[in-house]
Specification:
By secondary structure, this protein is of the alpha/beta class. It has helices at 64-74, 109-116, 126-139, 159-162, 168-174, 183-197, 251-259, 263-272, 275-280, 285-293, 297-321, 331-336, 338-345, 357-361, 386-402; strands at 2-8, 13-19, 24-32, 36-46, 52-61, 87-94, 105-106, 145-149, 206-211, 215-221, 224-228, 326-330, 368-369, 378-381. It is built from 15 helices and 14 strands. The protein has an 8-stranded mixed sheet, with helices on both faces. A 6-stranded mixed sheet has the order 11-10-9-12-14-13, sandwiched between helices. The model has no long low-confidence stretch (mean pLDDT 95). The chain binds adenosine-5'-diphosphate.
Length: 408
């Protein structure tokens, strides 16, 4: 049986097919530029002889329904997409679960209605996520659809961590609180790391650093998230590729008055023109590193600010946790930038955090320990796999739904 993981975004659909028994990936694809004349589908699979195969197709795709139809037309059992009889479930990435959705959830009509009500909390993401569920429900009426939420892992944050110091009616009437994001990734790397280190998950304390285009830190106590750097939206916290992270909350109001720009334009700038891109003109860390190495002062500043902000969160979360077994680096920058890992950990020896430079430089594609022999805190690079985590949680939700409840 197979589980298909779907990430339906505003202009793209990403999917991956997993063999349920061992959660191994058998096919994956991406259809990009939905709504244009040159949408592109790239589908990869393992052929019956065990060799990797790929097709790339370009055509106009008007909307998400057409996009799903194109994917289904281009793929079949031979190309790794299961027949309906072989389909155990679809697992959908949904960015925002609000306060209600704290676990992977089987979607029915009432859940769909509740999901639509969350659109205003994540207007850039949730509507497209939910559209994916609705279309696949139509196309595969008998197949379970499971929603897996980016926010769910952070629901264990205590009230003193998730509330803002604002009038409480803003929370009661407008759901204003910290939710946190990247939960699927943090959850995956935390479990992988605990298993790798042979530490029981419920005793595992760590600081998890998801450093991709978006970036967030999470404080993990006993395997659970007790604080995280992203808040009501994914704009809060660390310096990111194009997002500013933490700011003085008075700043947007000052900018409104002094620039005369519309609120939407300032919001766009904070999300898309800020972070690394705002500081040095490049939002991609590889480019920032390249320019910094050539002596470009804005790129050097961007790199320094990026690492400094992470270091401040490590300090805060060490204080919150009292003790950390490990610091975990993951996602594009966390997994691949030895320079960033080195800068982030520099000067933290007093806290038991000390990198081994040779190990740091030699990290491959598997989970790796990179702390110095004298370092009390483990430092791990953990490749993340959000799709596999969604597949795992989808399976769990389907099994739970099928298990008859014991009679009292
Ligand atoms: P997303 O959040 O879009 O999933 P990724 O997790 O793929 O992003 O991370 C993208 C970031 O990782 C980019 O800033 C990219 O420059 C950075 N990155 C990828 N490979 C390297 C590398 N070898 N060295 C430094 N940064 C890298």
């Amino acid at each position: 049986m197979k589980v298909v993981v779907v990430n339906s975004g505003s202009s793209s659909i990403k999917y991956e097919v997993f063999e349920a028994a061992r959660c191994t990936s058998v096919a994956a694809g991406l259809l990009e530029r939905i709504g244009t004349a040159d949408s592109r589908l790239r589908h990869r699979w393992i052929d019956p002889s065990g060799s990797p195969a790929e097709i790339v197709e370009t055509y106009p795709v008007a909307d998400h329904r057409q996009a799903f139809e194109r994917i289904l037309a281009a793929t079949d059992r031979e190309r790794g997409l299961p027949d309906v009889a072989e389909l155990l479930a679809f697992g959908h990435r949904v960015v925002h679960g609000g306060e209600r959705f704290r676990a992977p959830t089987m979607v029915d009509a009432s859940v769909l209605q509740a999901l639509r009500a969350l659109d205003s909390l994540a207007p850039l993401h949730n509507p497209a996520n939910v559209m994916g569920i609705e279309i696949l429900r139509d196309l595969y009426p008998g197949v379970p659809q499971v929603a897996v939420f980016d926010t769910a892992f952070h629901h264990t944050m205590p009230p003193h961590a998730f509330h803002y110091a604002l009038p409480q009616e803003m929370y009661r009437d407008h759901h204003v609180r910290r939710y946190g994001f990247h939960g699927t990734s943090h959850q995956y790397v935390v479990r992988e790391a605990a298993e790798f280190l042979g530490i029981t998950l419920t005793r595992f304390n760590a600081i998890s650093l998801h450093l991709g285009n978006g970036a967030s830190a999470a404080a993990i106590e006993g395997g659970k998230s007790i604080d995280t750097s992203m808040g009501f939206t994914p704009l809060e916290g660390l310096v990111m590729g194009t997002r500013c992270g933490d700011l003085d909350p008075a700043l947007p109001f000052y900018l409104l008055r002094s620039t005369g720009q519309a609120a939407e334009e300032i919001e766009r700038q904070l999300n898309q023109d800020s972070g690394l891109r705002g500081i040095c003109g490049a939002g991609d860390m590889r480019e920032v590193e390249r320019r910094a190495a050539q002596g470009d002062a804005p790129a050097q500043l961007a790199l320094e600010m990026f690492c400094y902000r992470i270091k401040k969160y490590i300090g805060a979360y060490l204080a919150v946790l009292g003790r950390a077994d490990a610091i975990l680096f993951t996602a594009g920058i966390g997994e691949h930038s030895a320079l960033v890992r080195g800068r982030v950990c520099a000067g933290l020896t007093a806290f038991g955090i000390r990198l081994d430079e040779r190990k740091n430089a030699g990290v491959g594609r598997v989970i790796s320990e990179i702390q110095h022999a004298d370092g009390a805190v483990k430092i791990l690079v953990v490749p993340t796999d959000e799709e596999r985590e969604i597949a795992r949680q989808t399976l769990q939700a389907v099994c739970t739904a099928r298990t008859p409840r014991s009679q009292p």
